[in-house]
Design a protein that fits this description.
The chain has 218 residues and is of the alpha/beta class. The chain has helices spanning 45-53, 78-81, 98-103, 111-125, 141-154, 171-187, 199-205, and strands at 8-17, 20-29, 34-38, 60-68, 71-72, 83-86, 159-163, 192-195, 209-211. It has a single domain, classed as Rossmann fold, CATH 3.40.50.300. Helix 6 (171-187) links the parallel strand 7 and strand 8. It is globular. The model has no long low-confidence stretch (mean pLDDT 93). Bound molecules: adenosine-5'-triphosphate. Keywords: ATP-binding, Nucleotide-binding, Transport.
Length: 218
Amino acid sequence: MNGTGSGLRIEGLVVTLSGAPLVGLDARIAPGEVLTLMGPSGVGKSSLLLAMAGFLQPPLATTGRVMVGDLDLMGERAETRRLGLVFQDALLFPHLSVGGNIAFGMAPGGGRKDRHARVEALLDRAGLPGFSRRDPATLSGGERARVALLRAVAAGPRALLLDEPFSRLDPARRADIRAFTFGLAAERGLPTLLVTHDMADAEAAAGPVTHLDGFRKF
Ligand SMILES: Nc1ncnc2c1ncn2[C@@H]1O[C@H](COP(=O)(O)OP(=O)(O)OP(=O)(O)O)[C@@H](O)[C@H]1O
């Protein structure tokens, strides 16, 4: 099952750097809604996403809650939070095919054939039919961005955390991939956080925008 049904509630989430508060966020994101996070470079946008996903490393740390229904994800290990993190580099596993990348996090069950069919359906949805056996190294930037998103979605996340996912793409491709990304989030009812510096991304996301100031003086 994708999504959360009830959305995501971020309550008093604060990232600290060596014990000092860096940045904080309070937000509610409905299923399929995209909350855009903007703010100056270094304010802590990426760190907020990493904190939510459970990948923050010292000297960075975090306090606060990220609620899905009655469950506080911050009390869970990273592996069980089920948050689909996508970075600007759209990093794919180089030793796996495109299909292997997408199937990587899929829940077991349903058998090989069923998994294969699910991968094919996702590739079709992304306008990449027949790409399953391709080596990720042969993909264009735009294709890689789509496959990275499919891999995140295929794992059945509760929400999507997108860290400047379009910033490496040329302007002509961005509109298409934005539409694909936000369409997929809406279709699957995934609450989505989008970190970007580009107002056009925020406009296309058509959701609320939060400008992060952070606690530090720049
Ligand atoms: N391991 C670390 N050790 C010390 N400081 C760190 C570490 N990781 C991040 N920081 C600092 O934390 C702050 C927030 O970094 P972060 O990458 O979250 O900012 P950002 O808002 O995403 O920036 P950008 O828009 O440039 O990507 C920065 O000042 C960064 O230098």
